[in-house]
Structures are given as C-alpha cells and as structure tokens.
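Page 47, continued from p. 46.
Same chain as before, 134 aa.
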Amino acid sequence: MIYHGNRFTMKKDVTPEQREEALDSLRNQGASIDAVKSYVVGPDFGGDFEFGAVFAIEDLEGYWEYLMAPSHAHTDRIGLPLLEKFHSFDITDDPDPEIEKKIADLHRRRYAQNAELTQLVRDLPLYEGSASPE
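Result:
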C-alpha cells in the first residue's frame, strides 16, 4: 500500500467558503477515484499545518490513476492558489528499493504533461513534496 498524504495551511485571506470548497474537493477525490481505497480529510493536529489529507492506494498503477483523475486536477486548480504552506509525502510498505524514485517519477511525469499545474506548484510560497517540478 501507498499512503499519499498532504499537509497544508491556507493563506490568511482565504474565505470560509473557499476553504470549505477546497476541503470538499479533496473529499470528492477520495470518493470518486477508484484507485483510492480509503481516505481522510480534516484538521491536522500536532504540527505546523492547518489541514491534512491521506489517500490509501494499492500500487503505482493506482497512484498514477489518482494523480491523473479529473477530480484531482480540479482540486489543484481551486486549492493550490489558496495555500501558504504545502507538504506532500508518501508512506509505503512496498519492499521495492526503487519505490521512492518511482513515485517521484510519476509526479515528474505529471508535471511534464501539465504546465498549468507546474506553475501552480512553483507559485506556492512553501512547497515540500514527493517530487518538485523541474
């Protein structure tokens, strides 16, 4: 399994309506993407972030399906411009010693295919993640 997580803090000027729309869009990803086996979206306690989301995915093929889903693209378009800080991470029990590189390659492939997404990520005030746009 691969547990793909996001931790984020929204900008101070984000309205309650914008905040809820972005969180609802994340929840929709979990509900609408077949590759997502379970998910959670909500407040992030015990750290430096306001909210978090975790999506459980069985394998790299499912991870790619998750990354390329229209509902994920929608969340990126409406959500990324609202963020002050964003951290993307992955936890896996896959024994493949190359799994970290393979996950990063999926992200890089997605960035290479989507200039709008790449710019949205580059425009974030603070981004740390599984792979950054080059």
